[in-house]
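Weekly modeling sync, notes
Attendees: S.R. (lead), two postdocs, one rotation student

Agenda item 3: backlog of single-chain predictions. S.R. asked that every request posted to the team notebook include the full sequence so nobody has to chase files. The rotation student volunteered to paste the first one in as an example of the format we agreed on. Action items at the bottom.

Example entry:
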Amino acid sequence: MNVNKIDGQDIYFLESREWEILFTERKYKVFEFSGKILSILESKDYQVHKKFNEISMGLGFTISNFALPYVFYTPKMNEFQRVHLERRKCDNCGCQLIIANPNVLDIYSGVPSEIDKFELMRKANKFDEKECPLCKQKSFPSAIWITQSSLLISGDTHI
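Predicted structure, as returned to the notebook:
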């Protein structure tokens, strides 16, 4: 397990075998989750993380010591942008997509109160708007990463 301080918050990045332990035993070291949260996490975000190197997953604590999973877009080594993975449909061609959206306030839970969460969201504007990989139209202003959902082998239906 590696620890990085991201947006003032300690984020714990697990290795694949550590994630498997967490999914099987519902806890790993100081992290413990309900089965429902873990089944959603395993079938959704973890499947994207396993398939795409630029999507990372970590664990952290909120100010009230509540453990939460986090997803990051990592375009470069040691560059982390919090994101929420969403299933979307291209308005132009109808292609089923998965996008990484940094403009969801909940993903900033755990960031210390002295850090402006809205400023962190605004910093995500440095990333170019992504286009549909099929028709090349830019339909999602909030998407900083995008892929066709058909590229996922398992877990695809839950995103």
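Discussion: group reviewed the output briefly. Confidence is low (pLDDT under 50) at residues 153-159.
Action items: rotation student to repeat for the remaining queue; S.R. to check formatting next week.
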